[in-house]
Amino acid sequence: MREAYHSELGVLADQLAAMCSMVAEAMELATRALLDANLTIAEQVISGDEKIDDARSACEEHAYSLLALQAPVATDLRTVLAAIHAAESLERMGDLALHVAKAARRRHPAPVLPDDVRGYFAELGRVTVQLARKAEVIIRTQDVEAARALEDDDDVVDDLHRHLFTVIMDKEWQHGVPSAVDVTLLGRFYERYADHAVSVAKRVVFVVTGRMPGSVSEDDDL
Amino acid sequence: MREAYHSELGVLADQLAAMCSMVAEAMELATRALLDANLTIAEQVISGDEKIDDARSACEEHAYSLLALQAPVATDLRTVLAAIHAAESLERMGDLALHVAKAARRRHPAPVLPDDVRGYFAELGRVTVQLARKAEVIIRTQDVEAARALEDDDDVVDDLHRHLFTVIMDKEWQHGVPSAVDVTLLGRFYERYADHAVSVAKRVVFVVTGRMPGSVSEDDDL
Asked: Where would you find the membrane-spanning parts of this chain (chains A, B) (predicted)?
């Protein structure tokens, strides 16, 4: 019985890891749609979001049935609850990739990004997708050290995000208010995506160590 | 034993209702700090956020101990899980009020808002605080119809948010890019706050009816 239970927990972890992979791909494609003003790719991300929502529902239902049928305690209970929280964060990451894709679609065929901020978004895309892929590995390995190291990647995202603001706020900004508004919101979508990836990883630390490293909902209020 | 359990669930609901009241007050004060460029009130919201975080931890710990000690099933299980999700949303609402207060502090003694958008924020503040207060009543009464009606208030917030964007994006906007960036982010904070309030209420519907009315993490991607 215990063995069957732990194999069920393993299935739940697999579902979460698969969700990480889905949201990493969504953000990778959304960033490409944004950088290349590619409508086909944007549409692909937009229509793919439903699958991420379904994956979250499936995770949550699986977690619920584990709780109802097995009534786990201690670490097992915390693992299931962490999975429920992680699934919520992952669905949110999918929504944020969706917002990026919708921004690309809204301005198509015009590019959303002025040339002088394209590099920031290429980098934000690269680092945030990497964060989601690392979170996938962390879920599979329960590697606490790797989870802690994600904070460094998140710091990179926060730095990029802050730099981006100095560019928009600079008197030299030539691209007008509507473009600044787009860039402001897009920057925030990437920053929130990274925060959620870190929160997923922190939940894994919590499961392994029984202690939560800091708040899981911190974000930069810029 | 069952009776003791239901009285514990009642305590959990009280904790959530108290959190609603805390985040309603935080947003009310943050909005006042924003509209009046009042540093004292902004600081009050900023230093008060820790209490909201603590209230969330207390809710979550209480919910965990209910799960571990009582191993609830069916509706009771869903109630406890809904409470865990609701506590997370409420902490997030506190963070969003905190962001509004920090924006007021960052620009002090200058006002953050140009005169032509002050009215929007007065109204956003009024409606979002009302949403949180209604969510409090809904948690206490488990009133499904009232929970559904919150969608209408959320529509009001979405409309205000969209109108705000047309004002910022208009060629007549005289206040420059930095001000547009501030207003963009502030608008989003209120819009997300309202979404979370609705999500709290939807969880209550779920507990009562066993069916979730739509996705709980939808937001406007403007």
From this structure: none
The reply to whether residue A221 touches residue B177, judged by beta carbons under 8 angstroms, is no
The tens digit of pLDDT for each residue in A53-90 reads 999 999 999 999 999 999 988 888 888 999 999 999 99
Q: Taking CB atoms and an 8 Å limit, are A221 and B77 in contact across chains?
A: no
pLDDT at A22 over 50: yes
CATH code at B143? 1.20.58.220
**Beta carbons of B80 and B44 less than 8 angstroms apart:** no
Q: How confident is the model at residue A217 (pLDDT cuts 50, 70, 90)?
A: very low
- Is residue B217's pLDDT more than 50? no
For range B161-169, the mean pLDDT = 95
Of B85, B92, B221, the CB nearest to A217: B92
> Is B102 part of a structural domain of the chain?
yes
The answer to whether the complex's ipTM is over 0.85 is yes
CA distance B152 to A140: 42
From chain A residues 105-164, the ones with a CB under 8 A of any chain B CB are none
pLDDT (0 to 100) of residue A79:
87
Which residue, A137, A112, A46, A57, is CA-closest to A90? Answer: A57
Contact state of B88 with A92 under an 8 Å Cβ cutoff: no
Chain A within 8 Å of B102 (Cβ-Cβ)? yes
Within a domain: B21 = yes
